[in-house]
Structures are given as C-alpha cells and as structure tokens.
Amino acid sequence: MVLTVAVDRSPEAARPWIEAARPIHPALIDTPHLVADLYNMVNVPTVVWVDEDGRIVRPNDVAFGTDTFRHITGIEAARHLELLRGWVRGEMAPLGEVQTRARQKLPSPSDQLARAEFGLGQWLHERGRPEAAGRHFVKAGELAPHDFMVRRGTMPMRGLDPMGPEFRAMLGDWTKAGNRYYLPLGD
Amino acid sequence: MATFTLVIDGLAVEGPGRAVDGRARLVPDRVWDALGGMPTMESDLEAIATGLDRPLAVDVEERVAFLGVSARARAARLASLQAPDFTLPDLDGHQHSLAEQRGKKVFLVAWGSW
To answer: Which residue among A136, B24, B38, B78 has its CA within the 20 to 30 Å range from the CA of A164?
Structure first.
C-alpha cells in the first residue's frame, strides 16, 4: 500500500501533481508539516517502510520513482525500487531492529525549536502577517540549516521561487561546506 | 491588560498577557488549564516551557507564542520503531490515517511541490 503525503503550504500547491498522477492510493496533504515533524523528515522526497504491525522497518531514505533527476542527485531509482519490491513480495527481509535504529537520525532540541519557529511562522502567515512570519521562517532555517523542509519549503510563503536563485545560492553554500543535500541510506 | 495567544498542540489559546524585556508574561487562566498550572499568578512563558521540556517560539510584537514538541519525546517515539500515527485529509477533504493501513505493508512517501 502506497501512502503519499504532500508536505505543502496548501492543497492547491499539491493538486496539479496529484491530479496528473491519478493515484489509486491515498494521497494526503500535510500543510501543518505533521508527518515531517513526527518522522524527523528534513527534505523531500523521503520514504519510510512500515510493516503490517505498524513498525518502521526502513527509516527515512531518499528514493525517486524515476531517473528524471538522476543527473542532479546522483541517485538511481532502480536500486530502491528493487529493494522495495523484494520486501513487498516477501523475498527479502527488511533491515532488522538494530540496523534500522542505527540508520535513524533523531531530532535535537534545536531541530525541535526550529519546528516551533516554523509553526509560529505558519500561524502568522495564515493570519495575514507575512513579514512577521518570514522572520520566524528565517530563524527556523538558522536553527536547523540541514532541514530543507523548512529552509526550502517556506520559500513559496516568503515569495521566493524554491527553484530560483535564492535556493541555488543556499544549496551552493550548503554543498561547498561539504554537506550533502540528499542523504540516501544505501544498502 | 492586552491579550497574548499561545498556540499549543494545534490549539490557539488566548489570555491576558504582556511583553516585558522581549519576553512574554501571562496570567492566562485558560492557558494554565491547558498547561496544568495556577490560574492567578503571572509567569514567564519561556520558564514554563523549559519546565515542560518543550521548545517555545515567541513573537512579542505579534503577541503570540507557539509551544513545540520536545526532542526527547520525538526521539523516543522514533527509536521505539513504532511508526507514529497521523490523520490527514486528501484533496476531497476525506481524512485518512496510517493506522487504517494496519495489516498491510506501507510505503510512505513524503513529497512537495517545491
């Protein structure tokens, strides 16, 4: 069962993509960043495997459905899809608890403060105070510079193009400092 | 006394409050109901949040604060490996939850139009 969650500022932002995909699975809209926060997701796309008993058997990973962005991300779609098929078909056991926990990244106090700042910014933005909101979005990004759900996800609310020059500058600074934008788990 | 809003667990609670030296001080009996405290004493909101081990984002000019979730609580939940449940709407406004999928393997995908 596929369950997709659009971590977006409104259903309308996600609508064109969902309607084009015509999914038969539940395609949910997460404007309050609920799933992102619960699972400590810091970028999209993020995928999690949950078994029949509601247990996380593969924690946050990066996976793409196609190789459309492979030349940018360096991530090959087929590898994760192959692992996924193996698990779904029961041909391959998942990682096991020790490995799963070892691969989890857990949130720090400043990560959670960043999320509170984001929540405050969102609350203000929804009530027509975009300048005040922007200050909290910026503060959130400073508290958790690795959290692109916040740093890039808030750009549309701040009147910035998430694919535009501010994002490219942010990405440039991030990668020049030796960081990775995507953190795939690998095998 | 003017009002101050505290956003806690998705609920906005208003009470009398003022800003002193950039900090929020409240005598918010309804907030106290929400936090479980004493209704008549004015107190520093950040001190309350620290006592609860929860992060607090404050905007004194806008007279609103947002109480977040503790890292300890989030981390413990994730480390238990029990997938946190959630309920969210689809485009038609119908609510769906992860718990409804119990008994099936779930491939959870978070994406964004950005």
So the answer is: A136
